[in-house]
Design brief:
The protein has 460 residues and is α+β, with helices and mostly antiparallel strands. Helix content is 47%, strand content 11%. A hairpin with a 3-residue loop joins strand 11 and strand 12. The protein starts with a helix and ends with a helix.
Length: 460
């Protein structure tokens, strides 16, 4: 029979061995976690150079922002609260939300749609801010719910379809605030604009964190864009009259109008125009340039796309851009009026500026609109260059602001920023506080995801 002394010794020895084993196990776990963290964050992964570029605000631009009531962090958080959290749409952001009025007969309203381009801008913001888990979650959501069978992004989805079984409280809807094309399309079509912007976001994600999986995804998506960039695009057009072809330049051709519906009796003011070709504003040339660095076999295709976009300029007198390039040439406008959409033209200008190929005429024209009137309107007459709409192009201001950052133009930045701040909410009791808003009919105020997310990316 062993003595008590030997039993105590054995127990102490066992405890010591157990403690050593525990420490060793904990050390192994810590090392494993550390290695996983390093691998997950791409420390050991040798990234391929995508030749990414970034544009920063100058000190004077920063000073312009600092001297106003603008709050950087608050704008993003308030936008997400209004358009995602309060709408119970996480991880999505709705297109817009109209705040309620002071009386009961002016209720809150919200969009019935989730716009894919907005979700990609949100993804870019997460990447830029280093929010990897948020970015990864949104990428998974986009891939599972916003793509067609071929991997292209759809233009939009109904919010209720994405919310699933959630019993969420919804404000009233209003067709008047929605994109007219969405209301005329029964099934969401492919959006090359959202698809090429998604390519940019994935390239930024890859540059920040790397991974062979992301690189493979980029190569697959880039191949689809380069091989099948000619897609059908849609635009709502008025039906008041059929236009007579107008000789604009040597590139002049008949603009498309939708066929008349014999059952319509002329009551419908808008119908849908659909064309197959290259939508100029949808060609994110910087994303395509970076993709061609990874995939040199597409370099010629990229250069051909740049040529098509550049040659889509309407004229020296009106250096805005066509809507589409088709097998028959360029399509400048749709419907019965010769109106050119300024926002789509501004996307073209930004894309050209990012690759250093924006001509001086276009930049001078848009600058003069800001300097001379301080306003941008949604459409301009193809012949006279005069504004055809009295609706401000709110999204356009953010694009001009970014254009000024690319060019390092402090004067244009200051003038455009002042124009934007006209519609920046500072009333402490307003639901729209710290966001950029749009004035809509009946003295309503709406907060749209688009310009707030663009401003988040520009001023971050």
């Amino acid at each position: 029979m062993p003595s008590m002394t030997s039993v105590k010794y054995s127990n102490a020895k066992f405890r010591k061995i157990a403690m050593i084993c525990g420490i060793a196990a904990a050390a192994v776990i810590l090392v494993a976690v550390g290695i996983y963290f390093l691998i997950h964050n791409g420390v050991f992964y040798k990234k391929t150079d995508t030749d990414g570029k970034s544009y920063e605000l100058t000190a004077e631009m920063q000073a312009d922002v600092s001297e106003t009531a603008f709050h950087r962090g608050y704008m993003f958080s308030r936008t997400m609260r209004l358009l995602s959290e309060d709408r119970q749409m996480d991880p999505w952001v709705l297109s817009w939300y109209s705040i309620p009025g002071t009386t009961r007969n002016v209720p809150a309203m919200e969009s019935a749609y989730v716009d894919s381009f907005d979700q990609v801008l949100l993804l870019e913001s997460y990447v830029k801010d280093g929010k990897r888990s948020k970015a990864e979650s949104l990428i998974k959501a986009i891939d599972s719910s916003l793509t067609d069978g071929n991997g292209y992004l759809l233009a939009f989805r109904k919010a209720d379809d994405l919310a699933g079984e959630k019993d969420r409280k919804k404000a009233e809807s209003c067709d008047g605030n929605e994109d007219p094309a969405y209301l005329l399309i029964s099934e969401p079509p492919v959006s090359m604009k959202a698809t090429t912007r998604y390519l940019r976001a994935l390239l930024d994600y890859y540059d920040k964190w790397g991974s062979s999986k992301t690189l493979d995804k980029i190569k697959t998506l880039a191949g689809k864009i380069f091989e099948y960039s000619n897609q059908t695009s849609y635009r709502a057009a008025d039906q008041m009259a059929k236009p007579t072809p107008i000789p604009v330049t040597e590139k002049s051709l008949v603009t498309p109008v939708p066929d008349e519906d014999p059952e319509d009796n002329g009551e419908s003011k808008e119908k849908l125009v659909s064309l197959s070709g290259t939508e100029l504003a949808a060609m994110d040339l910087e994303a395509m340039r970076r993709a061609s660095v990874l995939l040199p076999e597409y370099k010629e295709k990229y250069e051909e796309t740049v040529r098509i976009v550049k040659e889509g300029k309407i004229s020296s007198e009106l250096p805005l851009y066509a809507w589409m390039h088709t097998s028959g040439g360029y399509m400048y406008y749709t419907g019965s009026q010769t109106n050119v959409d300024v926002v789509s033209s501004l996307y073209v200008m930004v894309h050209l500026a990012e690759i250093g190929q924006l001509d001086a005429e276009g930049y001078a024209w848009i600058s003069q609109q800001i300097y001379n009137t301080g306003y941008l309107y949604t459409s301009y007459d193809l012949m006279s260059g005069e504004a055809l709409s009295d609706v401000e192009a709110s999204e356009g201001y953010a694009l001009v602001l970014y254009l000024s950052v690319i060019k390092g133009d402090e004067r244009l930045f200051s003038a455009t920023y002042k124009a934007m701040m006209r519609n920046y909410a500072t009333l402490s009791t307003s639901d729209a506080l710290y966001t950029f808003f749009r004035n809509i009919p009946e003295s309503r105020i709406s907060v749209y995801a688009r310009e707030n997310l663009l401003m988040e990316l520009i001023l971050k």
